[in-house]
Amino acid sequence: MGLLDSFEKGLERAVNSAFAKTFRSGIQPVEIASALRREADTKAAVVSRDRIITPSDYLVRLSPDDDERMRSLGRALHDELFALLTQHARTQGYSFAGPLTIAIEADERVATGTVRVNSRSVESRVSWQGVVEIDGRRHPLATARTVIGRGTDADITISDAGSSRRHAEILWDGERAMLRDLGSTNGTKVDGQKVREAGLAPDTTFTIGRTELTFRVIPVTDREARA
Asked: Which stretches make up the FHA domain (predicted)?
């Protein structure tokens, strides 16, 4: 079953058959879903081999008559559109450039039965943040140097008796990362091999003691960076 098929079935659960008769003319809810998906596809931008960013802020413009009909659906329409676009982005491998928002408004310049979608990215700027992921939790890396170890003076503390107090460090310049062992007792491993120093590509997993850590590079909007 396609995404639009799923949307239509979800919409059928949200409105009764009597109300559905009002859509015999004018815009159809599924057309709004198609327009949103098309806008996300058109504006998607490849920023690296593994990362595709698409806008996060969508404005749907309808004729006043169509807007009035859509508003009669209440929150159900917005929830279905939000779920559809989120699932579409996940399927396509897109990352939203900020929190997803969808708004619908009337525009007298839009003809009945048509839909216009405008999009933009929140703050319109995306930067890249290096993080270390441990048991699903992400720890941002400082620009320059981040020390990892068992000691309370480490920048990232791990509860692992097999690690040293200052076990290893990651050097991050905003684009590249280097892992360096700090003379630890049990060593630092990348792909099962002990290393003193090694470059870290995104999604590389390394081991300190019995703890597995993964280096990732994630998109961060200006708004998130200030939070």
From this structure: 146-195
